[in-house]
Amino acid sequence: MNRSPNFTSKLCLCPKVYPGDDKITYGLPAEEADKAFAAGLPEFEPEGVAAELSAPKIAVILTRDKHPDRSEPDYTLPQATVEAITLSGGKICPVGYDKVAEQLDAIRPDGVFLPGGVFDVPLEWEENEPEHPVDLRRFNVYIQLIDYAKEHKLPLLAVCGGMQVLACCFGAKIGRIEGHRTNVKEFAHKMTIKNGSLLQKITGMSGIEVNSWHTWAVSKDNIGNNITHVSPDGVVEAVEPVSPWHSFVLGLQSHPEYFVKSGYQPAIDIFKSFIEAARHG
Predict the structure, then answer these.
(1) Residue 231 has pLDDT above 80, yes or no
(2) What domains can you pick out in the chain, each with its CATH number?
(3) Among 157, 185, 195, 209, which residue's Cβ finds the most Cβ atoms within 10 Å?
(4) Does the global pTM surpass 0.85?
């Protein structure tokens, strides 16, 4: 990330393993970020993560999550996300929940990555759910990132919850499903890939193995004529807009970032294609 006069402080995201979890997460106490935002515009940086000066900058939302050993939520970034983008040649540029437009104008990213996670979406996007309170603060950051990518014609890759927000922006809805929350680090099933799609162009395959770590899915009934790829039981596993604002706009229900470092070629191809699209505009 290039230094900019708009940034007033640098905040490091330190690697940590939280209780009851075996995954390394880059984290920052929320109160530190909130204090920095109150004083100006902080610059976030994962500790010890290096990238080439010429690496394309990828804007990634910091997910604010509550962990058992914290009284308040932390801002976090999964190690798998950091590794997948960095190993593919990109530079992680985390974006916090406050002053999003100002952060993006200062960063000037070359691409946008929407991660997964558990967060609220507007009630009208949910199928067969009773009315309940929602906190749309995190959701609103996803929308701002999508809008920024559209406005600046940037490539966008979305996974899990990020893919669901992307699909709902196309007019889809989401609903609860069962049997799709297994192990994020292991393959769960195969997904078919449609002929002539971006995903087929990237992988050169008609189907790939994917992990499964979700309890909500995009409804096929409301996806319109956008391109969808499905699992054997018909769950939407990937979505591509029929009229994208950039040649690379892809949403995946699975988490391919967990297989980049281990060498699974389709996952590598997805992230390398995304980073190359960001590099060349």
Answers:
(1) yes
(2) 49-280 (3.40.50.880)
(3) 157
(4) yes
